[in-house]
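For reproducibility, we list the full input for the (2S)-2-hydroxybutanedioic acid complex.
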Amino acid sequence: LFGALDRQPPDALLAVIGMHRADPRPDKIDVGVGVYRDASGATPVMRAVKQAEARLLAAQPSKAYLGAEGDQRFTDLLAGIALGPELAASDRITGVQTPGGTGALRLGAELLARSGAGTIWVGTPTWPNHGPIFREAGLTVRHHAYFDAETAGIDEQAFLSSLDAAAPGDVVLLHGCCHNPTGTALSPDQWQRLVAKLAERRLIPFVDLAYQGLGRGLDADAAGTRTLLAAVPEALLAYSCDKNFALYRERVGALWVQSATPETGAAVRDTMLVLARSLWSMPPDHGAAVVRVILEDDDLAAEWRAELDAMCARINRLRTLLAAIHPALASIADQQGLFALLPIDAAAVEALRAQHAIYMPASGRINIAGLNEDNVARFAAAIAPYLGD
Ligand code: LMR
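The corresponding predicted structure, in tokenized form, follows.
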């Protein structure tokens, strides 16, 4: 049976983690996988998370099964953060807990396939896992224009006009904020024009919101998503708590689906639960319980917000530092989130790894939080020869 299977290349991004770990050079720099790092290069457990975990350890009454929807109170409290109070109260929106943002994307993909959607459009470039997630669910993945390497910004005209090739009922995958890998973000006006285009072409948006709070702040980072959901009849929102609660390996996320009517929404929810049951039966509890404990308690929630704001401020300080280093990096100051795409090729990425112990994926995407006041000058000197004049 298994003789028909081919060997597969290792996941390129996860391979960078392993290569960096194995490198004995003491001054190595990891700007690879998208995890927040503090000034010492660590990815600490957030203080609010530690306190919530202590409370759970002391008081959690049971670990008996919850159900395919996971911890519904977690999802409902998180809806207030992601969607804002108005949309969170909508009877057309229903949400369930998922194993991370990837679980949310996959559950949404399965729901789309079950609903008869055939094609999803993703931007060029996008997170390398987007394509596989949707293809594995049986959807056709097509690419629309998005990033202009010349300006290191969004080519809005090409973006919107490439959506003219989409058929009514096609789905469009959008990054809610802090675009991975480019760091770009749509302005409020650009969101408005995108909403008009989606409505004109009768396309269904599927927003991936994985970095809320790490760009401009919790509400600002969700503003585009909220505008979109308020304007269209149907939409999906995949959410990850990996980065903004630093719960990466706990796999905490949620999927919300907005339907045209509450009646349709009830069938959507039933279908989500049936699909979740066959995919993972029930999502892992611990991380979601931690987020629930934080959001249920005003003091813990305030502490979490303050920590998140400090992380966001550190990333933005590093962006300013990096942008000042070379004219080719100037746009990094206006971008947001963990990532920026360096204008360098795969050969340069390899040379940086071999000669300078600097680790990033072949695309030239860097995780800005991997830099700090001590290594940024060495990083700048190493990449300078590849940036042109
Ligand atoms: C990244 O893009 O680095 C993160 O989203 C981690 C991952 O799973 O790829």
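Residues 298-323 form the longest helix (26 residues). Residues 53-296 form a domain with the Aspartate Aminotransferase; domain 2 fold (CATH 3.40.640.10). Both points were considered when choosing residues for closer inspection.
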